[in-house]
Automatic annotation (TrEMBL):
Name of the molecule in the record: Crotonase/enoyl-CoA hydratase family protein
Keyword Cell cycle: no
Listed Pfam families: ECH_1
Source domain of life: Bacteria
Family membership noted in the UniProt record: Belongs to the enoyl-CoA hydratase/isomerase family.
The protein's annotated pathway: Lipid metabolism; fatty acid beta-oxidation
GO biological process: fatty acid beta-oxidation
Secretion signal, residue range per the UniProt entry: none
Keyword terms: Fatty acid metabolism, Isomerase, Lipid metabolism
Keyword Ribosomal protein: no
Amino acid sequence: MTHSCFDVQIANDIAHIILNRPDKRNSMVPAFWTELPAIIRDIDDNAKARVIVISSTGPHFTSGLDVSSFQQAEITDPSEKRAARIRSGADFYGTVKNMQQSFTALEDCRVPVLVAIQGGCIGGGVDLITACDMRYATEDAFITIFETNIGMTADVGTFPRISKLIADGVARELAYTGRRMTAGEAKEVGLVNRVFKDHTAMMKGVMEIAAEIASKAPLAIMGCKRLMNYSRDHTVQDGLDYIAIWNASMLQREEIFEAMKANAEKRPGKFVDLPPVKKHIG
């Protein structure tokens, strides 16, 4: 399947999703918002990979939302103009909710999502990377909650997520000022896991981490992601209870024994892949 905004490569249990519009600074046009969740759900639902890596091309990771591509033709008919004005709030709400779900798909999928950032990660790019499990960057990378600079409030996922990744005061400073945060500073505050010299070194390092994750029992990794997301959003006691319930139903002794045997024999483990997601009927 071909896409207008992405290239997709799957090998060795790793799905690599690449933003492929460097000449447009990988801006987020309408197709972006439908293609990304479709790609993620296809990989997840059909158990095509154990890890997902998102990277980009060109000097910048993404310039964010392409506002011009969402502009509508001017309405001249008075009755149509009135109807459009009345519906505008509901229309905007629906549009934003759909865009939010495009990034929530990264959080909801069963496998870890790693993102590799080079150059600018601007506006909607911050919404994207904060929905991923881990973030990596080149030395020249920077992020900016750019929406503040153009008179609007970021609305596709930055604020609900970034304040759970870094100190609230730092997140507020980025939001209120719209300033650039360098890769070095992002590592200092814990927003990115590691900083690499350049794009080549970053992709080598990120793919090594992805391969390490892919070598583990998929059900255990799925449990880690599910439980960490749940614990982030609930009390400690709720999290403890959920972990106990999860393992009561999901713990697989055969996978534990295989992991122990593989470690003792210094060989890759032979683990069972996640099952395809069963679709609801009706």
